[in-house]
Task: inverse folding
């Protein structure tokens, strides 16, 4: 396997073996943004949450929006990768690793948003010592811990054979690769153990991923706040999460395809399939959004309608209609015909969806708090430079962590590509089993003969 | 970064946007093939078992934490049914994850046969 990687798939290992000036420029640029985020957080830590735009009644703003957005993006990986793996979709092979890395990175960053939102991070200890399971916030903490653990394991297991290739091939970081390779030699027993473990994880991770975003939605829907108290919030959030996750995955694929010269691995056909998935999710997202708003409108409950009109024609209309355009109109326009310039169209749709889904999270969190059911008085939310800095820093930290990962490990699974090449006959045989048996006569023909 | 220079530092090999590609498709630099530096197998083994211990400690810690929350809810008669109900799902999930991790470590580290 190592030999094969040394010849045919050397391009996958090239970013690990050599580092060019472009890498340092990218890291430098991202570090500037991360530094801005760190400065913003330090200011908030010193001065308190008063330096942010958070106040009564809007006590959740950018931080909780970012939390929901990042946790949503995390569905890119594990869920998409697990579904493709279980359904034996052969085109998954160059995609799964990238997807799994996104999950792990954004889960860390998403969970950290809650710490930032707390203002005083030491209060986290109160949750550990005196947590109460009646609170959906604690359900969140539990399910995100489970998802993070499962995603880490699910990322690591399929990396073991690739780490062994790096251990055998590279001279640097020998200790790291030797430890992480777990003595992998590729023996039949090791393959069996690893294959079984990956299969178990692929099954396990799907319900965990679905539960995570359902529970994130429960944080809102278990309250009696207008336009939050909804029975479809669970599936609505899961659909939105998969939608934004696919978009994030496509953007990451296109970025690394261009940066690392992976055109031979990430072909237009991959983007076509993912683009079709994105289109389906866009339609599904529109259906849920329509159902959610129509139900609220038809009920015409006064508090509910205040939030409704605040979104449609009130102070939040640019965000609401921007979300509708970015999540539905633009993606459908870009993806409905993917004849020529597939990659460009899919990229445009994905970027649009990422913006649209962030707006959607914002539109869910802020307008309801601005127009509360209880007589607190209305209040608008204007983020300060602290929230902007923290948001920019979080996105940059994600990109930086992803970039550093690609300097340590192959961003495309080398052994799975090799396995795919070797398994062409097996796939052909499997395809034949899907078709009617040619050797056996059709019942109708047999009847005619009879 | 110029258009012909990628994050991996290799110039393009001619087809426009191929930013990284190894030296013409394969061989790593000579200095990386000239005999890898030996790593003490004992150190490797100790660190590998430390990884297992960390996984057991992390997941075990979460299970202990959930159990602590049940006990607190029970002691205060603070709707213990909620804690027990959620724990009935959460604890088996974490234990299954731990089982997979231990199974992989045990299965891989216990087998040193060649491919």
Result:
């Amino acid at each position: 396997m190592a030999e094969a990687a040394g010849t045919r798939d050397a391009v996958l290992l090239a970013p690990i073996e050599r580092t060019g000036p472009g890498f340092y420029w990218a890291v430098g640029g991202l570090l500037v943004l991360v530094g801005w985020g760190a400065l913003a957080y330090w200011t908030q830590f010193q001065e308190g949450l008063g330096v942010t735009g958070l106040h009564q009644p809007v006590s959740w703003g950018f931080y909780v929006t970012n939390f929901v957005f990042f946790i949503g993006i995390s569905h890119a990986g594990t869920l998409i990768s697990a579904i493709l793996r279980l359904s034996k979709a052969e085109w998954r092979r160059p995609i799964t690793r990238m997807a799994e890395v996104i999950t792990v990175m954004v889960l860390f960053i998403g969970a950290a948003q809650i710490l930032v939102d707390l203002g005083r991070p030491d209060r986290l200890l109160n949750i550990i010592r005196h947590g109460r399971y009646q609170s959906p916030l604690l359900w969140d903490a539990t399910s995100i811990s489970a998802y993070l653990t499962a995603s880490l394991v699910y990322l690591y297991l399929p990396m073991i054979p690739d780490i062994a290739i790096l251990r055998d091939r590279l001279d640097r970081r020998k200790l790291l690769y030797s430890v992480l390779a777990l003595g992998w030699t590729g023996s039949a027993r090791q393959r069996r153990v690893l294959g079984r473990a990956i299969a178990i994880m692929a099954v396990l991770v799907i319900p965990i991923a679905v539960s995570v975003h359902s529970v994130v939605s429960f944080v809102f829907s278990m309250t009696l706040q207008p336009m939050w108290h909804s029975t479809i919030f669970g599936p609505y959030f899961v659909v939105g999460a998969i939608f934004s996750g696919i978009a994030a995955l496509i953007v990451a694929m296109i970025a690394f395809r261009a940066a690392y010269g992976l055109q031979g691995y990430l072909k237009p056909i991959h983007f076509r399939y993912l683009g079709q998935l994105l289109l389906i999710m866009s339609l599904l997202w529109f259906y849920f959004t329509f159902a959610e708003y129509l139900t609220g409108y038809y009920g015409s409950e006064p508090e509910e309608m205040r939030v409704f009109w605040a979104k449609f024609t009130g102070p939040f209309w640019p965000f609401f209609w921007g979300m509708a355009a970015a999540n539905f109109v633009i993606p459908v326009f870009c993806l409905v015909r993917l004849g020529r310039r597939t990659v460009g169209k899919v990229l445009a749709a994905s970027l649009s969806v990422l913006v649209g889904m962030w707006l959607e999270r914002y539109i869910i969190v802020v307008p309801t708090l601005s127009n509360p059911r209880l007589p607190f008085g209305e209040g608008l939310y204007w983020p300060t430079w602290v929230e902007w800095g923290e948001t920019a820093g979080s996105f940059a930290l994600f990109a930086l962590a992803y970039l550093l990962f690609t300097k340590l490990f192959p961003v495309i699974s080398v052994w799975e590509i090799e396995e795919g090449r070797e398994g062409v006959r097996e796939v052909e045989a499997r395809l034949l089993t899907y078709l009617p048996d040619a050797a056996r006569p059709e019942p109708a023909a047999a009847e005619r003969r009879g | 970064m110029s258009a012909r220079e990628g994050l991996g530092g290799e110039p393009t090999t001619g087809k426009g946007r191929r930013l990284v590609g190894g030296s013409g498709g394969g061989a790593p630099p000579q200095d990386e093939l000239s005999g890898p530096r030996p790593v003490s197998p004992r150190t490797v083994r100790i660190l590998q078992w430390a990884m297992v211990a960390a996984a057991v400690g992390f997941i075990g810690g979460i299970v202990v934490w959930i159990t602590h929350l049940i006990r607190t809810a029970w002691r205060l008669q603070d709707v213990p049914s909620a804690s027990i109900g959620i724990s009935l799902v959460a604890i088996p999930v974490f234990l299954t994850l731990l089982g997979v991790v231990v199974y992989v470590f045990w299965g891989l580290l216990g087998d040193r046969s060649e491919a």
Q: What stands out?
A: The domain at 2-419 of chain A is CATH 1.20.1630.10 (Formate dehydrogenase/DMSO reductase fold). Chain A touches chain B through 67 residues (CB under 8 Å).
